[in-house]
Design goal:
Blueprint (H helix, E strand, L loop, with lengths): L1 E5 L6 H12 L3 E3 H10 L3 H11 L6 H12 L8 E4 L5 H13 L6 E6 L2 H9 L1 E4 L6 E3 L18 E2 L6 H15 L1 H7 L4 E5 L4 H18 L2
Parallel strand pairs: 1-3, 1-4, 2-3, 4-8
Antiparallel strand pairs: 5-6, 5-7
Helix pairs in contact: 1-9, 2-3, 2-4, 4-5, 6-7
Length: 221
């Protein structure tokens, strides 16, 4: 299957992308991974992207699209892929359509992870990270530390990252509503959008997504 995964920050896209790609035996292609891989390998695209990032500028769409094209042409993506974080806006979606059409490939589904805005704020603003080891993550509501402000694992101080503050989360949501959400309507016009709730246990959400994708594939045969 060839899938685009969309949803607001805090919807659990990263978690579900990894799980779904594994279940469907297709590569998970995220823009973050594309940038890191190209920059670490010092490809021409990586050098170009780094020059924009070092200057504090956004990487232009055409660079992101070229990276995605290169990745989708790798042998492991021959039978499908799951795109996470790309396309990020309608112009990228249009470019992706043109790219796929040139290769006589079509998308099977656009999976939209739906979550109420206040839940997004609660999920992200409630995160607390250990200063000693950022892999030790807690949540004031869902997985609180035994002692407030102290890491259960190493005793380090727990803190809230600046980009997890409520104010920053709401700004990120504004950007999502303005730039990324319009691609849902763009793909709805093509009959590709499958919307599921991203509330509940992680395993349940994964199963919900797999069943919805299976139905979509059967209906479009």
């Amino acid at each position: 299957m060839r899938i685009v995964l969309v949803g607001p920050p805090g919807a659990g896209k990263g978690t579900q992308a990894v799980r779904l790609a594994e279940k469907l035996a297709i590569p998970h292609i995220s823009t973050g991974d594309l940038f890191r891989a190209n920059i670490s390998r010092q490809t021409e695209l990586g050098k170009l992207a780094k020059s924009y990032m070092d200057a504090g500028n956004l990487v232009p769409d055409e660079v992101t699209i070229a990276m995605a094209k290169d990745r989708m042409e790798q042998p492991d993506a021959e039978n499908g892929f799951l795109l996470d974080g790309f396309p990020r806006n309608v112009s990228q979606a249009e470019a992706l359509d043109a790219l796929l059409e040139s290769e006589s490939i079509t998308l099977d589904a656009v999976l939209d992870l739906e979550v109420p805005e206040e839940e997004v704020v609660k999920r992200i603003a409630g995160r607390r990270i250990c200063r000693n080891d950022s892999s030790h993550v807690f949540h004031v509501t869902y997985s609180p530390a035994k002692q407030e402000g102290v890491c259960d694992v190493c005793g380090g101080e727990l803190y809230q990252r600046d980009d997890d503050s409520e104010e920053t989360v709401r700004k990120r949501l504004e950007v999502y509503h303005t730039q990324t959400e319009p691609i849902i309507d763009y793909y709805k016009a093509q009959g590709l959008v499958v919307t599921i709730s991203s509330l509940g246990p992680v395993d349940e959400i994964t199963q919900r997504a797999l069943e919805a994708l299976k139905r979509e594939k059967a209906e479009n045969k």
